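Morning!

This is the sequence you dropped in the shared folder:
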Amino acid sequence: MKKILFAATTAKGHINVFHLPYIKMLKDEGHEVDVVTNGDEKVPFVDNDYSISIKRSPFKFDNIKAVKQMVSIMRNKKYDIVICHTPMGGVITRIAANITKTAPVIYMAHGFHFYKSASIINTIIYKSVETFLARWTDGLITINNEDFEAAKKFKLRKGGKVFILNGIGIDIQKIANTNIDKNAKRKELKISDDAFVVLNIGELIERKNQISAIKAISKCSNKNIVLLICGRGEIESKLKKITNDLNLQDRVIFCGFRNDINEILKIADVFLFPSFQEGLPVSVMEAMAAGLPVICSNVRGNRDLIDKNGGYIVEPLDIENMSYYINKLCNDDNIRKEMGNYNKKIVEKYNISNVLVDMKEIYSQFL
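The structure's back. Tokens below.
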């Protein structure tokens, strides 16, 4: 039995969303597993659930306190392996691990904050931080090709390895086996039976760029084309104002946070995802598993998932082409079906059962 620590900034927004299958896997193997987050939500399966004052922003004084708290936990528990996630979770955990001489340390990058289209300031700051912390890292897991190539240039601790993983896994069977009454679901969401449904799923923040999605709908002359936006976030009122200003109240539907995403995927015709930055987006993989064609932005992560056989890739602010491809897919049932079937085949490698096997192999190299 090994003593294992999982660490991330949040439980609600990260550990409980992405990593419970891996925690359960390690528990089933007989290991003791603890978790450290900001305590915003309890984490199931673990032996100890610690809360520290970690903040997302690197400029918060609380993060200095969080390092001290993490050091105290590590000194007390003497872990055999540490697995950390999220930018600040990775920073604080690796600093504390170095102070306490805790190793090995695995860091999973869900999307570096430096990338090809990032600002020069972002690239300088975040790349410098990751380059520095790499010396205290034994395993660095990436989930897209651009990050993998960047990570291979870092100098890890002696004997350290860089890996690429097919995301964090999605439950393809659960999506495929979801059966619904489509007419009843459309009625519930106040969508007419003959509406062509464009779906967007994601947190309502600037990075997800729902503004471009709304503007693309405004360019579609077919009034039966509607946009469903599932999610909540800080720019919700801004998005609703833009919708009202464009007189799209009847064609843009804000669904809020949903627990029935698999059902909503079944009534959609196209998935639209114009985000500015991604790691490897789960929502796109879920749309693929549901057999939807995808129109997405030309950014890291999206490019790893979608090619010309499964959809269309456009620049995040290219409203005209987004609108053009929405109209094209609306008018061609055959292309939609072909792209959807292709995506269902391609997404198989991202199935949680496959990713669990790959992650177990990575962990075993350090356990």
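Headline: The chain has a mean pLDDT of 96.

More detail when I'm at my desk.
O.
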